[in-house]
Amino acid sequence: xxxxxxxxxxxxxxxxxxxxxxxxxxxxxxxxxxxxxxxxxxxxxxxxxxxxxxxxxxxxxxxxxxxxxxxxxxxxxxxxxxxxxxxxxxxxxxxxxxxxxxxxxxxxxxxxxxxxxxxxxxxxxxxxxxxxxxxxxxxxxxxxxxxxxxxxxxxxxxxxxxxxxxxxxxxxxxxxxxxx
Length: 180
Known about the structure:
- This is Putative LRR receptor-like serine/threonine-protein kinase.
- With 180 residues, the chain is mainly β.
- It contains no helices and 13 strands.
- The chain has strands spanning 7-9, 14-16, 27-30, 46-49, 55-61, 68-76, 88-94, 97-104, 110-118, 123-133, 137-138, 140-146, 161-162.
- It has a four-stranded antiparallel beta sheet with strand order 5-10-7-8, with no helix packed on it. A four-stranded antiparallel beta sheet has the order 12-6-9-13, with no helix packed on it. Strands 3-4-11 form a three-stranded antiparallel beta sheet, with no helix packed on it.
- 23% of the residues are buried.
């Protein structure tokens, strides 16, 4: 996560803000350039690591209670701590509810986690939970309002959708077409 100024994704026009206004724990690290060759994304050049505490949570306010949101997190280990070796595992929670396990086996892999959910409050609490299998960290955290009631109709106050697998695939557009 970027501790400095904002970063703009010039292709998609998305502005990434520093995470200091959303969390006050953790330590920022820069990913070595040798791990950035496969993922030249400015929003994953840094990360925030959480060596202390069992549960570290981001509090994202300015959320509209009852609205649908896409929450997306990215994890690029990049051997930031020089401890490359055994797999790294920790859990993600949305508030008190289990979201999914993050399981990293290759320091060069970019691991995505996504959930589409309805805001039960006027904020989200996104937590990284230490399960004793490595230090939790996060590279990027995104929150996007889904402003159409006609999509993801199965998502409601008691049902969320979680991305299964590593990525979405373009199964209909032209190869050069950007789909966001």
